[in-house]
Amino acid sequence: MRRVNYFFCIVAMIGMLAACQTKKAEPFVYLAEGESTETTVVTADSLTYVELNNPQVSNLDQAPKDKDGYISLFNGVDFSGWRGYGICHIPSKWTIEDEAIKINGSGQGEAHTGDGGDIIFARKFKNFELLFDWKVSPNANSGVLYLSREIKGEPIWISSPEYQILDNTGHPDALLGESGNRQSASLYDMIPAVPQNAKPVGEWNQGGILVYKGTVVHKQNGQNVLEYHLWTPQWNELIAGSKFKPGGSFPLAYGLLTNLGGDAHEGYIGLQDHGDDVWYKNIRIKILD
After folding, report:
1. What number does CATH give the domain 63-287?
2. Taking the complete model, does pTM exceed 0.85, yes or no?
3. What is the pLDDT of residue 18?
């Protein structure tokens, strides 16, 4: 009996070692850790906001690249390189499931209950191409945000464009806005994704965002679905015609979005907790600076 047990223990150990070798976590290195500092800003229209300056930054200098020059921002195993928006940990409602990042929604709206909230990759990007896969549960809503800043007490989208993630057939947001500009891959509440080629609930979609010297392109399932240009009069008009217009319900948004990314024109990439189950995987970036 002891010999049999010993044999099976050896077999189990070999299996565990093989599994570990198959998928190895490669954590990113944090350049610094500590408490955020705060910078108070008064805008031209006398609105005041506080920007958080978090020292926790992911170092990608030695990160491996694939044959096309992309760096993986998610290793399929853990949250190395990621943290919560405005905080230094990952909210517990974000988990890893089948080598994908999953937001386990509260079912009660955007970050409504429990340890939820948006997450960001802890490094700012300026010119880049971001690729990612996503899928949604029925009636789900989320978003990929970019060029974001951390504004104390405000949601991530107050300072960030949003690549909409949505169940176009089940979520009411698909029928709101104008001309489908709240459907998947749209620039949320500003420009619709055309053609609208999202796959059904439960199927994986391929998303993409290109940002290069002010030109932005959204991609969905192999097609370019919209293009726009930042820091131009046309960009300001888009914002003024959206829910982020000056004097609207979100008074800080117009000033932050027209000065997107601040003077450096750079910001974080984030994933949104909108209270629903949504999955992300194969998140990779090519830095174009």
Report:
1. 2.60.120.560
2. yes
3. 42
